Amino acid sequence: MNKTTKAPIVSLDNFKRTKIIATVGPSTNSYKAILGLIKAGANGIRLNFSHGTHDERTQQIKWIREASESCAKPVAIIQDLQGPKIRLGDFEGIINVSKGQTVSFALNADYEKTGHIPTQYELADKVKRGERIYLYDGKVSATVVSVGKGVVHVEIKNDGILLKRKGMNLPDTDFHGDIITAKDRADLIYGASQDIDYVALSFVQTGGDILELKKLLKNMNSQARVIAKIETKAAVEHLEDIIEASDGMMIARGDLALETPPESVPIVQRQIITMGITHAKPTIV
Length: 285
Prior knowledge:
This protein has nine helices and 15 strands. By secondary structure, it is an alpha/beta fold.
C-alpha cells in the first residue's frame, strides 16, 4: 500500500501580491501595538509627519525595526510629509456664511479686529480671480472675486458654517512647484538621518515636483524612494509625468473627491492602478 505524501504547508504570504500599510497613531504608539500590526500582516508602516516630534518618531522607528527583526519580516517605513498647511486659522466659535455673501481671508488675521477670516497659508500669493475654494471638507464652496495685498475676497456659493483649523481645497490653483515647505525640508533631513525607506509627497501637481524632491534627497545622501500622493486636480491632469518620475503612487481619495467630481474618483483610481501596473510601480489605495 502506497503511503500518501502530504504536500508541505505553504504560507499564503508567499502568494500575496497586495501589501498592507498601517499608520502609527495614538492607539498604536507602542512596541507591542506595532509588533501586533506586523504580525497581523502589515508590510509597511506609515508615519504621518503632520503630527508628532522627531523624538517621538525616533522611538517609533526603533520599535518598527525591532518588531521587523523579531518577526523576521522586512517592513518598509514610509515618511508622509505634511506639505503646505492650507487650513483656516484660529478664531472663536463658528462663522456662519450664506449663499451670495462675500467674505475675506488673510494670513493669521485677527477676525474680531479685521473681519478677515484667518488662514495658515498665504492665499493671496497663489489664488486668482475665478478660482474655486472648498472649505470645511467641501461642505462650503466659494469663488475668488478679487485678490488684494495679502487679502483674498470670495463669494460663498452655499449656506454653511466655518470652523477653525479646517482644511481648504484649491482645485484650480497652480502652486508653481512650491509644495515642499521649510517644515518638510527639516523633516527630510531627519528622515535621511534615520534611513527612511519611502517619502510620500503631498499636493503633487506635476512630475517636476517629484524630481525636485528626488534632487533634495540626493543632496542629503538619502536612498529613500518617492511616493506621489494623487490628491489634486492638477495631479490627475499630469498623471503620466508623475508616474514616470515617481517610485510609487498613493491615491488620497478624500481630497481627490473634493478636487474632482466625486463620481470620477473610482475611474481615476482604476486609471492610476492600471498605469502603475504598466510602469511596474506600486499603487497605494
